[in-house]
Amino acid sequence: MTDLAIRAADRDISERLCDQVRTAYETRTPLRIVGGNTRMFYGRPVEGQPLSLAEHSGIISYDPVELVVTVRAGTRLSALQKALAEHHQMLPFEPPCFGEESTIGGAVATGLSGPRRPWAGAARDFVLGTRVITQEGKLLRFGGEVMKNVAGYDLSRLMTGAQGTLGVLADISFKVLPIPTTSHCLRLPMGLNDALGKLAQLGRQPLPITAAAWHSGELFIRLEGGESSVKATRERLGGEPLEASFWTSLRDHTHDFFKGNEGQALWRLSLPPNTAPLALDIPQTDIFYDWGGSQRWVKTALDAQTLRAACQAAGGHATCYTPNAQGSADEPFTPLNAVLEKYHRNLKTQLDAHGIFNPGRLYAAF
Questions:
Q1: Quick one: CA dihedral 21, 351, 72, 43, positive or negative?
Q2: What number is the average pLDDT over the span 13-32?
Q3: What positions does the domain FAD-binding PCMH-type occupy (predicted)?
Q4: Residue 70 — pLDDT band, cuts 50, 70, 90?
Q5: How far is the C-alpha of 135 from the C-alpha of 22, rounded, in Å?
Q6: Residues in contact with 356: Cβ distance below 8 Å, sequence separation at least 6, in sequence order
Q7: Could you give all domains of the chain from N- to C-terminal order, each with its CATH number?
Q8: Distance between CA atoms of 112 and 101, rounded to whole angstroms?
């Protein structure tokens, strides 16, 4: 993206947004926070007056040398990625892009990360600071533009994944990283148990792996880093070349696996590393193992209680991505225990006393 294009896309409507929030606070009017509206499937539906951040866009500042970019929440994810790529840099957490309208604010609000997450870190690990519109309609800054600036930094991280239930993300500062100089993707024919065993073995070694997945008898691996390191690992592992677009399709749910699942719900199982296959009555063709096996996409009509019980027994949890499908759950996210619910409720009360921000988005109770 040229400097001219960046300036043309720049628009600050924070004052208008603050006025809308202030009015909603005074009148106790629920707000449904909207960016590109491409992630509305994730979580519970929200009834409220739309608060659109789509026009609040533009790259506020970008220092390629310091590896820091500050951007308005309504900026399209594709535009930000293009601007970073011109300087051979990237968002390390590899956020999913569920359509051309996807915004960076939505990516942070949902806290989702792509295939690189186990090796690079999660979305919140790269959020340096934010400007947030509070319940009173005030625009406050938390954190900064350097990792050592800890003033308010934890609250910025807290906003990541909160789904807009604690305030309105207006601007976000990120730590970015260089795009690896060399990349090679490969596929290896291999059974599930052998693949999980191999990934556990490889994970104990300093290898340039930045993505690993298994599905339908094939292990998929992405190698990134220095040329000599990638070359040596590629020769050691062997396998057939794999198109890099495979990881994009997995990240954005455009892979064939995510199509044609009529009568089934799509679940994401989050499990500890090196967890064995769960004892569930699901064909292996309906399970896609991502993040080296820690994240598992499952298509099934099994009931939510059965899935969640199996995940919890293994130390994980399950999230439903298709709330209206057979086998879906009334609560897309794993219900909180009494202690966690108390903390969530107290936090919500402190930051959103009248429940105006995306009420019921995470849980029906608040």
A1: negative
A2: 97
A3: 1-179
A4: very high
A5: 7
A6: 21, 24, 25, 28, 29, 30, 31, 48, 135
A7: 3-178 (3.30.465.10), 182-251 (3.30.70), 256-320 (3.30.70)
A8: 16
